[in-house]
Amino acid sequence: MTRSGAQGMTDHAGIPLTHGRPRVNGVDLHYATGGNGDAVVLIHGVPKTMFFWRHVIPLLTPHYTVVAVDLRGFGSSGRPATGYDTGTLAADIAALMAALGHDRYRVVGEDWGAAVAYAVAAFHRPHVVQLVFQETRLPGLPVPDLGPLAAEDPRTGWHRSFFGLPHYPELLMAGRERAFWTYFMRRIMWDPSAYTEADEDEYTRGLEETGGNHAVFELYRATETDAAQNRPEFAVPLECPVLAVGGRAYLAAEPGEQMARVAAKVTPVVIERAGHNIPLEQPDELGRCYLDFFRTAED
User: Fold this and answer.
1) pLDDT tens digits for 230-245?
2) What is the DSSP string of the chain?
3) Which pLDDT band holds residue 144 (cuts at 50, 70, 90)?
4) Residue % of the chain over a pLDDT of 70
5) Confidence class of residue 191 from pLDDT cuts 50, 70 and 90?
6) For residues 243 and 286, what is the distance between their CA atoms, to the nearest angstrom?
7) DSSP letter string over 230-268?
8) Neighbours of 167 (CB within 10 A)
9) Which of 4, 109, 136, 218 has its CA 20 to 30 A from that of 84?
10) Are 40 and 65 in contact (CB under 8 A)?
């Protein structure tokens, strides 16, 4: 059943998006779609849902058919025990887009969704027109030295070590999802107030449902699998154009530096007055960057 936050999402004209939940690649995958034109699929990160894109979608729908998706284990999608490596998650997306009749499409991902988006572009190359890789580090690539950071700054990777442990994160997180993730999400933003009560409600609701925490931590536990899957693809750089986006107050130029290692045509962009959650902090500027980039494939 579609949850309330996602139900309220609209296109540029205020028309509610159309929702579906087909079974693809062995999982019931929830999507919402609206607009007209060539297809763009939006992939969220952790601990989010498609609701994270609600401010950006109306900027795209006048020009493109937008497909926002809840990754398996998140939102209103199915919550199987396994399948949280980025290769499988990418296969989910490719199967969904095929089921919707989209043979060629643009892929936009942020945070863990960007790692999934890279996997779509790498493992399903004939179908991807352009890739947006936003605010993440790609499994399999080295992590740069960012200099001294506060010990609990997520850029140190402390949370990756914790979340990757078996069993303990689920035991410790149960019943504390709202407090933990609200602090975590605001800690990594330039403008913490952009993470609103509606965001708190949406993501906490999903995490508290059966299997919600498990899906988050299984993503992290699959990191070494992701890296092993990705490394052979690095030898053949992506040919589709890539927009690499960072928030000045978080990863900044790092996404561009990462994509320069694995793709032939990379346009790096750093969004000012933004941290990790750019679609909440600077949606208008982000939407303009997307549209400018998308139009380069139409010239």
Assistant:
1) 999 999 999 999 999 9
2) ---HHHHT-B-TTSPBPEEE--EETTEE--EEEEESSSEEEEE--TT--GGGGTTTHHHHTTTSEEEEEPPTTSTTS---SS--SHHHHHHHHHHHHHHTT-SSEEEEEETHHHHHHHHHHHHSGGGEEEEEEES---TTSPPP------TT-GGG-HHHHHHTSSSHHHHHHTT-HHHHHHHHHHHT-SSGGGS-HHHHHHHHHHHHSTTHHHHHHHHHHTHHHHHHHHHHHHTS-B-S-EEEEEETTTTTTHHHHHHHTTBSSEEEEEETT--S-HHHHSHHHHHHHHHHHHHTTT-
3) confident
4) 98
5) very high
6) 11
7) HHHHHTS-B-S-EEEEEETTTTTTHHHHHHHTTBSSEEE
8) 8
9) 4
10) yes
Tokens of 298: 């139409």
Phi/psi of residue 194, nearest 5 degrees? -70, -15
Q: Are strands 23-24 and 27-28 parallel, antiparallel or unpaired?
A: antiparallel
- Is residue 31 a contact partner of residue 98, using CB atoms and an 8 Å limit? no
Hey, how many other C-beta atoms are within 10 angstroms of the C-beta on 136? 24
Assess contact for 22 and 99: CB atoms under 8 A.
yes
Q: What pLDDT score does 2 carry?
A: 46
- Predicted pLDDT at 4: 58
pLDDT at 280 exceeding the cut of 70 = yes
**Strand bridging mode 31-35 / 18-20:** antiparallel
Average pLDDT of the chain to the nearest whole number? 96
Q: How confident is the model at residue 146 (pLDDT cuts 50, 70, 90)?
A: confident
What band does 298 get if pLDDT is binned at 50, 70 and 90? Answer: confident
Residues 104, 127 contacting (CB under 8 angstroms): yes
Distance of alpha carbon 167 from alpha carbon 215, whole angstroms: 12
